[in-house]
Write a structure and sequence with these properties.
Layout lengths: L4 E2 L2 H8 L4 H5 L7 H9 L2 E8 L2 E8 L6 E2 L3 E5 L14 E7 L6 E11 L3 E12 L2 H6 L13 H7 L2 E7 L5 E7 L7 E3 L2 E5 L8 H8 L2 E7 L5 E12 L2 H5 L11 E13 L1 H6 L12 H11 L5 H9 L5 H15 L3
Helix pairs in contact: 9-11
Length: 336
């Protein structure tokens, strides 16, 4: 399997391709009105905190409005973090905000600016919307309240959602969602946990980070249950056919498999999930993810003719509806 190992960014891009330039245009450097609305309506956040020595992952959650912020700063109550000890001043931060019943997610990256008596304050560097493919594949919002297995192997086999926290050589954290049917989300093979890469937004920040710095943390979730599995270890990327073929779904074999040499694997109840009360889905929102995507591209400060043309095109009336149709088609045709 060593001959199939991915050890450089160039090798990674030769397998999955380079990030398309339009993907960079959806990233803004602050929390705009749409992002703040999203955060105020969210019941659950996955968050990674890290530094040069590694990264940890935790959840925060409660009723909508548990997190808040302004254009430059995100604020999360320490009491609503499952593991508040991870939040240290100066730590890199990557987060994923979920909206009940919505497939798309909001990603926020930055750095812990400070800890006061009640909150962790994060200086925001990046904010962008993430496509719905991971949540669609996991059928996250179709779940009903459920019991999770007490056995680690059984829990991993039943999991359908994974949040991956990584940190790169430059100290930037990333929190990436993964989703798949039970049995294909993650698999244990001795002391190694395996999962696969699937089509997504093609930014692949998490895999670039793994190439640079392999220490990772991840949380596995069984939709409907309040228990999670938290794994820490060293990740490696491979194109080995045997590793990839174990994750074939609908006759589609992933291009890349990820193996994590497990240092710790802990099953734990998540108070954040219990407070969030995600299942059954009952919260309605008028937030339109396609509208958020459009507004972020308009707000992006990138220069150049391509960026200017993209922003001009998105000012045409009706373009949000066209984007939504394009997303829906992509979700139907390119899940695997």
């Amino acid at each position: 399997m060593s001959g199939a190992a991915i050890t450089t960014v160039a090798e990674l891009e030769s397998v999955i391709g380079r990030t398309p330039p339009p993907m960079h245009l959806k990233v803004i450097d602050h929390l705009d009105v749409g992002a703040l609305r999203w955060i105020s309506a969210s019941q659950l956040m996955f968050a990674g905190f890290g530094d040069g020595s590694g990264v940890g992952i935790t959840l925060a959650g409660s009723a909508p409005g548990f997190a808040s912020g302004d254009a430059q700063e995100l604020r999360v109550p320490l009491a609503l973090l499952d593991d508040p000890a991870l939040a240290q001043p100066g730590a890199a931060f990557g987060a994923l905000f979920l909206l009940s019943g919505i497939g798309e997610t909001l990603r926020v990256n930055g750095r812990v600016a400070g800890i006061d008596a009640d909150h962790v304050r994060v200086a925001v560097d990046e904010c962008y919307g993430h496509c719905a493919k991971a949540l669609i594949r996991s059928e996250l919002w179709a779940a009903q309240p459920a019991h999770a297995p007490d056995d680690s192997a059984a829990f991993v086999a039943a999991s359908r959602f994974l949040a991956l926290a990584t940190i790169g050589a430059e100290g930037r954290a990333d929190l990436s969602p993964k989703g798949d049917p039970a049995g294909c989300m993650a698999q244990l093979d001795g002391d190694v946990l395996w999962f696969a890469d699937r089509p997504g937004n093609r930014r692949v920040d998490s895999f670039r980070n793994v190439v640079e710095q392999p220490n990772i943390a991840l949380a596995l979730l069984i939709p409907g249950a309040n228990r999670i599995a938290v794994v820490r270890g060293q990740a490696r990327l491979t194109t080995d056919a045997t590793a990839r073929e174990r994750f074939t779904v609908k006759d589609k074999t992933p291009l890349l498999a990820i193996g994590v040499e497990i240092e710790t694997l802990d099953l734990r109840e998540s108070p954040a999930l219990a407070r969030a009360g995600l299942w059954p889905v009952h919260t309605e929102t008028d937030i339109d993810p396609a509208e958020l995507f459009v507004e972020h591209i308009k707000l992006n400060k990138a220069g150049g003719i391509g960026a200017s043309l993209a922003r001009a095109t998105l000012s045409v009336p009706g373009v949000t509806g066209l984007l939504k149709k394009g997303l829906d088609k992509d979700y139907r045709d390119n899940l695997y």
